[in-house]
Every structure is written in structure tokens, then in C-alpha cells.
Amino acid sequence: MSKKYILTEETTDRVCPDTGHVLVTSTKKTTMIKVDSEDEFFQTYYNNLSPLYGLSGKEIKVLMQLNTLAFFNTGEVALTPARRKDLCATVEITPGSLSNILKKLTTVGLLEGAKSTYVINPAVFWKGDKSKRRELLASGKYSLKIETTIVDNEGFQIQL
Questions:
Q1: Of 2, 73, 84, 105, which has the maximum CB count within 10 A?
Q2: CA dihedral 81, 37, 125, 135 (to 10 degrees)
Q3: Which residues contact 66 (CB under 8 A, 6 or more apart)?
Q4: Per-residue tens of pLDDT for the chain, all 160 residues
Q5: What domains lie within the chain, and their CATH numbers?
Q6: List of residues 6+ apart from 110 with CB closer than 8 A
Q7: Are 50 and 19 contacting, i.e. CB atoms less than 8 angstroms apart?
Q8: How far from the centroid of its chain's Cα atoms is residue 138's Cα?
């Protein structure tokens, strides 16, 4: 199923009656964009990325793969045994490492769920309509419950 978006921009000139000079010019342009829900994409809300600072490369790779597997407009990821095996092969980790990474991503607030069904926190990543994301965030079911500590070059801890 695809959605069509029509973007419209208008051009008008406002002329000074005394001098005849153009004061303001704007343009009108209509563009239609077709977006397939099957397109592979996800949105990242950069103001909420602080939990990524404490993640390893493998943990970030798992998170990005989960985003590509997420269902449109729900953020749900069904991790069947076959998907777990494929995910481990793609990221080059063991099943035990995957379990540990999923636990950490859940602990820092980027995921919710356990075992075979996870939901990616829509405050950080989203794959779907923005209006549906706003509905989910407004419901109070999902929030940004993130605490991250970074240690700087001098050994001081910074709480984010």
C-alpha cells in the first residue's frame, strides 16, 4: 500500500503601489510524492540519541538491523529463531551475545519487550507515519527513559 503526498508552494508578487517595485515574491509549485510502506527506511530523532554514546559497535549494528526489521507504524520486531540466526550471522555475533545486547538495549530504554517480540522506542527511532508516532507517544505507553553516563578524557563522569 502506498500513500500520496501533495506538496504545494505558491508564487505571488506584492508590488508597492507608489514605486511599482516588487516587494515580495513567492512561488507556487505542486509536487506529488508516492511513498510505499514497504520502502526500507526509518527515521532517527537526533535529540534523543544520548543512549547511543554508551553502546559498542556491535550493539549499534544490532539496533540498526532491528530498525530495518520493524513493522511499519508499530515499531514491533518479531525475533523468530530464524530471524535471530540471520541477525547473528549479519552482525557476526553468537546467540548468547545477541541476548546480552537485547538486554542492554532494553535496559537503556531503546527497546521494550523480551524473547521474541520487541518494540523500538518511537521517541528515538520510527518507521511509519509521523501522526501514528505522535499518537503512540501521547498515549504515555512509550517515553524516553534514558540515563547514560559518559566518562571524559580526564576520567570525569558526565550524566546525560
A1: 105
A2: -110
A3: 77, 87, 105, 111, 118, 120
A4: 555 555 555 556 677 777 777 666 665 666 555 555 545 556 666 556 767 778 899 999 999 999 989 988 888 999 999 999 999 999 999 999 999 999 999 988 889 888 899 999 888 888 888 888 888 888 877 655 545 455 556 665 555 4
A5: 2-36 (no CATH), 43-159 (1.10.10.10)
A6: 51, 63, 120, 121, 124, 125, 146
A7: no
A8: 17
Amino acid identity at 63: L
pTM to 2 decimals?
0.62
- Rounded distance between C-alpha atoms, residue 60 and residue 19, angstroms: 61
The count of residues in the chain is: 160
Q: What grid cell was written down for 123? A: 521517541
